[in-house]
Amino acid sequence: MMRSLKASDIMWNHIEPVRLGAPLPVVVKHLLQNHVTGLPVVDKDRKVVGFVSEQDCIHALLVSNYHGEGEPSVDDVMKREPVTISPEMSVVDLAQNLGHGKPKVYPVEDHGRLVGIVTRTSILAELARVGAGIDVGRFAGAD
């Protein structure tokens, strides 16, 4: 049964992605409110064009506060060419590919459009539920 689990089974699709051009304070608020370590950045067609993490925001806030420069936008701090996964990707394969330095949040793209995110926490919750019979309830997927 665990073999057949797909990213689409555990993805969190109730999250609003960050739009290109969003001011950094809006991005930070979004990360904090959603309790995630990072979010995909999308264009007007919901195509994933970048990824912004807490670490990116911390660095940018330090630089902008220290140097008193203008307010950065997500375009200034995001990583381009982010790792995305397919809704059909096996959760087992994804779990086995998680390693040190790998993303903690994976944008899920279907036909070039963002359809959700999978977090390490959602993978852990599902593996615990299926493999160890641990009742973790329905977990939203936040880190």
From TrEMBL:
- Keywords, in A-Z order: CBS domain
State if 4Fe-4S is listed as a keyword: no
Q: What are the residue boundaries of the CBS domain, all occurrences included?
A: 11-69, 78-136
One Pfam family from the UniProt entry?
CBS
In Swiss-Prot or TrEMBL terms, this protein is called CBS domain-containing protein
